[in-house]
Amino acid sequence: MADLSRPADTAADRAHTPARATVVVTTVASDSHTWNLVYLQLLLEELGYEVVNLGPCVPDELLVHHCREIRPSAVVISSVNGHGAQDGLRVIRALREDELTATLPVAIGGKLGVDGGATSHTERLLAAGFDAVFEDGADTLTAFRRFLDELGPGADRALESGAERAAVQRRHADEQMSVSV
Amino acid sequence: MRSPVPDKSPVPDKLSVPDTLPGHRPGCVPSGSAARGFGDFVRAHGGNGRLVVQPRMGFSDPAAMRAGLAATRASAARTVGTITLDAHTRVGHLQAAAAALREGTALNGYPVVTHPPATTARVLDGIQGPGFPVQVRHGSARPVGIFRALAALGLDASEGGPVSYCLPYGRTPLAESVSQWAAACELFASLREAGREPHLETFGGCMLGQLCPPSLLVALSVLEALFFLRHGIRSLSVSYAQQTNPEQDTEAIAALRRLCAELLPTDDWHVVVYTYMGVFPQTEHGARRLLESSAELAVRTGAERLIVKTVAESQRIPTIQENVDALELAAAAAESAARTAPAPLHHPADSPTYQQAAALVHAVLDLHPDLSQALLRAFRRGYLDVPYCLHPDNRGLTRSFIDPAGRLCWASVGNLPIGHLVRPRSTTRLTSATLLTDLTRVRNRFDAPAPPALAASRRPPARDAPKRCATG
Predict the structure, then answer these.
(1) Which residues of A touch B99 (CB under 8 A)?
(2) Which CATH architecture has domain B12-340?
(3) Using the beta-carbon criterion (under 8 Å), do B209 and A83 form an inter-chain contact?
(4) pTM of the entire structure?
(5) Is the dihedral of CA B141, B87, B218, B225 positive or negative?
(6) ipTM computed for the complex
């Protein structure tokens, strides 16, 4: 996927960078929102990941197909249309049933229901097989960073120096909010 | 008459819309009693400082949907009704919609294809009529099935477009959306055989909700209107979503009116303004103030209709009462603006926004006599290219940013045929942090304790405001 931080025609130079851990950024089949996906792609790229952004309205089978092909380090599902929990329960079943994606770390976050967070969906989604659930809230980004940290060596490889890592962390210290556009 | 609001006399001498504004043709408006459909109703009751206001509203439960329409109709505002469809119906997952209805799971809209026709007829019975037209909003890139259901139900007003309901929201190839929309328009146009005047609104003026520069919004809205016309629709509205700077928005709507007057071979069109669609203020005062500012923008620019947002918008799907509150607040703000709006500062018809939008529209029209082919070529060549849009048929060579004066500008125009009109500034590298700053700029400005917009909107902006973005 193109590097979003610059126009697509200048992204070719990125091809020379060494192989990095890949994260698939996606949403659920019924969700048409994309700013959350654009933001997550930039954030993950700054953290040193290669990102494959599947864009809006991703059918379950397409996500499974891409995961089988790409073999990413993790999948990050972001949804803000209120159907995230419903669709998420279905898509995680599809991912867990496929032997190539059965143990893949998968996180879901955003506005997952239609009642503004009055009902928590976290427990149900974790029980269904998600590794992490980030419902819209003040500490969402911090918790998301913790999830990424636990992924292990992918980001470490990419961030070559401690100084670079510190710079990235400083940049994000004041943005601890979720983007639910 | 349904409306609890007495008809207000137009106050043209106090309006900020110059009489010379192209497309401003009060003489062409039909009388209310003779209104035959959505378009006639809005042109009879909106414009000249009056505003028809409309909610976004859709509930899966028929009783709730009926209650929402009834409350919209009964509100102290001149309104039209809305049925917003659910996301499963939008993408054609009718089985998922049916399963949700069976299980009693709430959907985020009304599944009009899945509910039996008799159910929808009961929802509308005694509410929809000449005094209260209802528009169906859906967001589908493959809308034929939806339009077939609407036609069977006698629902004759909807919205969308082959580009605006395809690129930002899904994976449908643009070519498929274009051919689906052509067929849907022709199907909808056949409602005229039943004595109706089907009405379509372009969604092109709302692309991505935020951070799409106004000139591209205007161009897409005009191109989609032309597309509808060429496929048999005769009653149109053209949308424009409020962006980040009132002066730039005013220019953009003037440009939209001028281009429509120049290019649409009909008088049966009106302008619909959308309250800001990006990241919405979280405070009540911020949300109210932003809604009011959109009503003021609509009145200032002679727009006939406004689609509102609610104070609950940043949190969740609003309740019926929150929608009614928003409609009444917008109507009051519009009335107040029509009384007090200052005279226009300058004639904005030949603004940078107009020049860019006109260049985009004409470059696309010149690509092929068949507008469907022209649109497809335009996206292939990057003559149309929506910044930050992830769709595979979008080139992705353009970028936008908000300048220090709050104007939405081009950082990179890619292959857009406006290079001679724009000085792009792509010196700053885009990061997640800068994107977040631009995405949340309006929210933060309106959530601030003393809303600066209040002062700014009452005060005539300086003719040569400092730091003004030269790229429009």
Answers:
(1) none
(2) Alpha-Beta Barrel (3.20)
(3) no
(4) 0.82
(5) positive
(6) 0.75
